[in-house]
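Weekly sync notes, structure subgroup
Attendees: PM, AL, DS (notes)

Item 1: joint prediction request from the bench team. They want all two components modeled as one assembly rather than separately. Inputs as received:
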Amino acid sequence: DIVLTQSPDSLAVSLGERATINCKSSQSLLYRSNNKIYLAWYQQKPGQPPKLLIYWASTRDSGVPDRFSGSGSGTEFTLTISGLQAEDVAVYYCQQYYSTSYTFGQGTKLEIK
Amino acid sequence: EVQLLESGGGLVQPGGSLRLSCAASEFTFSNYAMTWVRQVPGKGLEWVSAISASGVNTYYAESVKGRFTISRDNSKNTLHLQMNSLRAEDTAVYYCAKGIVGGYPYYFDYWGQGTLVTVSS
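Output from the run, pasted for the record:
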């Protein structure tokens, strides 16, 4: 299975500041035939199901604020939240769909400093 | 708005069976692959199984292969997960989620609220 390792496990950021969450894959998630990266990011707030934020590594889902952005290539990826707001407190997960055996990162808990 | 409503969770003894269902509405269910993802309370997400829109192709995590069976009834807009030979480590909240195309879920754009399965004697 493809292993996704997120860092850090937890993060405390001041309101209005930038939060950066990393996701490293054990193998490339770039599918060369279509030049797409098979990685998504989700946000999960307490007591709620996950919510899709980003797909194809950098495409924001409909309705997702533009302070959320995804980047990266090959095996290393980043979710950036610019201008942290109180409602962004959540656990964030990356997920690969390159392999039919889908896997998630272990999650990164984001809190307000 | 897409709606996914899971049911069928509960308490079951080790070695027992349980069948989860997910009722889908407000989208053309038969056009989309679907998936089950589980989460031990307080822990991370684990993909369990997926099925293509037609139901022909199914995919399983190694941890459940041979014990769980995913199926769908497109005439009733319902997804199922038959869970046999349940173990304590299968205890989790089970979410159904919608894929973005028919053949292969890729990522999951809508999720249900989940149903709790507890395997304990």
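Discussion: The mean pLDDT of chain B is 97.
Action: AL to compare against the crosslinking data before next sync.
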